[in-house]
Specification:
It contains eight helices and 14 strands. It has 295 residues and is α/β, with parallel strands linked by helices. The protein has one domain: Carbon-nitrogen hydrolase (Nitrilase/N-carbamoyl-D-aminoacid amidohydrolase), CATH 3.60.110.
Length: 295
């Protein structure tokens, strides 16, 4: 009898803990919450061996300094290095806000204004030259200034050196707010998709993946590949809940290294729609190539 009572008590405590954890995990209606279970579950199988639509991509993990010019030079050098290693690459993706530190905690908004650029501007002009020379798309994140307003933006430049799309971050992180960044409105023009090799390619930035509105809009439009630049400290997980969330391939590019006490993980990978990470790594600077196949 005592054993039975103890079992009931233990079960009751367990259920109480589960309920409390579920309540604590609830957020506002416009926020997606991903649990550790989502990020460490069993891998599924996505067979793209017979796919007739393909996109050869490189995701880059890069160390960023506080100096905008040094970062721009480094990005162009990394693009050349990636293309030399993988001549077949059609798209090279860099991380979020790679023209500088993601945030300077001591002077957040003044620093962001010091590295901000117009689009088009000197940085996009320089990258356009490299994209045309290499004959591939190049995507990267930067702080954009537009009539005095700051945005956390992501630019995609095509092999002709033309800006084909610009996405402004909709779902801001606390660091963005400290840096004086303005969120893009939840309107149709904030949903950024382009067609590459007859594949629907969507563009998001970091915490955009946590937003219900943008996720719904992209999935409703049948997105097939998500380009996802990040500035993240997260470690490498066994699966990618984000690609499962969008039911699309995800190209995840991050930064690496310490920036005023913040240690960015370098977690960079390419995952299929089942959440299986096909290639990637963490804890270092590098680049990762994969031939994406879309069924």
């Amino acid at each position: 009898m005592n054993t039975l009572k103890k079992l009931k008590l233990t079960t009751g405590r367990f259920l109480t803990i589960i309920i409390v954890l579920l309540c604590l995990s609830c957020q506002e209606d416009d926020t997606i919450v991903q649990s550790l279970f989502d990020l460490s579950g069993a891998p599924l199988i996505y067979d793209n061996s017979n796919a007739d639509r393909r996109l050869k991509v490189v995701a880059v993990s890069m160390v960023c300094s506080k100096d905008k010019g040094a970062n721009l030079d480094r990005m162009c050098d990394k693009a050349k290095e990636a293309k030399n290693s993988h001549p077949e690459a059609e798209l090279i993706l860099f991380g979020e806000s790679v023209l500088g530190w993601y945030i300077d905690d001591e002077h957040p908004e003044p620093y962001q204004r010091s590295i901000a650029e117009t689009i088009p501007g000197p940085a996009t002009d320089s990258v356009a030259i490299i994209a045309e020379k290499l004959g591939c798309h190049i995507g990267f994140g930067l702080t954009e200034t537009n009539h005095g307003t700051l945005y956390n933006s992501f630019v995609l430049i095509d092999p002709d050196g033309e800006i084909v799309a610009t996405h402004r971050k909709v779902n801001l992180a606390p660091e963005d707010i400290l840096g004086g960044i303005t969120p893009a409105a939840e309107i149709d023009s904030s949903v950024t998709m382009v067609l590459i090799n007859n594949i629907k390619v969507g563009m998001i930035i970091c915490a955009d993946a946590n937003g219900v509105w943008l996720t719904r809009e992209l999935t409703d439009r049948g997105v097939e590949v998500i380009l996802h630049p990040m500035a993240s400290e997260v470690p490498m997980f066994k699966i990618d809940a984000g690609s499962r969330q969008f039911n699309a391939w995800e190209v995840f590019a991050n930064r690496y290294g310490e920036e005023l006490g913040r240690q960015y993980s370098g977690t960079t990978f390419i995952a299929d729609p089942s959440g299986c990470i096909r290639i990637g790594d963490s804890g270092k600077e590098g680049f990762y190539f994969y031939n994406i196949g879309v069924n």
